[in-house]
Amino acid sequence: MCNLYRMTAPADAVAKLLSAVPSAGANFAAKVYPKYTGLVVAQGAVRTMTWGFPRHAVSKRTGKPLKPTATNNARDDKLRGNPMWRDSFRDRRCLIPVTAWAEAEGPDRHMTRTWYSLPGRELFAVAGIWRPSGEWGEVYSMVMVPGSEQMSDVHDRMPTILSADNWTCWTDGAPDEAFSLLRTWDGPLAVDRTPEPWFKRSNPA
Known about the structure:
With 205 residues, the protein is mainly β. It has a single domain (5-54, 67-197), classed as SOS response associated peptidase-like (hypothetical protein yedk fold). 13% of the residues lie in helices and 38% in strands. It has helices at residues 11-17, 83-91, 167-172, 175-179, and strands at 5-6, 31-32, 37-42, 45-51, 53-55, 69-71, 73-75, 93-98, 100-105, 112-117, 124-133, 137-146, 157-159, 161-162, 190-197. The strands form 3 sheets. Strands 3, 4, 7, 8, 11, 12, 13 and 14 form an 8-stranded mixed β-sheet that branches. The chain has a 5-stranded antiparallel β-sheet with strand order 2-1-9-10-15, with no helix packed on it. Strands 5-6 form a two-stranded antiparallel sheet. A hairpin with a 3-residue loop joins strand 11 and strand 12. It is globular.
């Protein structure tokens, strides 16, 4: 699943494309990792949030709580049944502007970054859900669907890419209407296989 994506367009371009209220001085990462600040469109406005719903666990060795990890992808087939996602899917859906997303490709310990985007498009929108959290403020997660044939040799899941005529239905439609939009993108993808190591940096604590 997606653990890295790029969003290199300025916030005002996002607001214009997605017909959203702009956010003055929005500060977000161009390369977004779990627990980084990314840009979303929620409730009709461009907003910054943290990528990933916090998940808590307890150390098996000490029995003490561990620092929360970020669950940054939500499977389409878990949205309506899993308590982590259910209320957010029903009540708080958002659009995530994306320039390209990355998947790890290659043998273990030698994986490199392969980037996927839409041909000729600097920006497209991915289905997301969001909620407030006590740990990191407002947080969001990408919704994943089965991967397309074009990327089947790399991963079997991909972000839900939404066409422009479905943006409003995703954010404002009834849950059943929104759920019907969760399908594999059937258009072509631009693929950029790079020599960049997948694990070249650590995510923030």
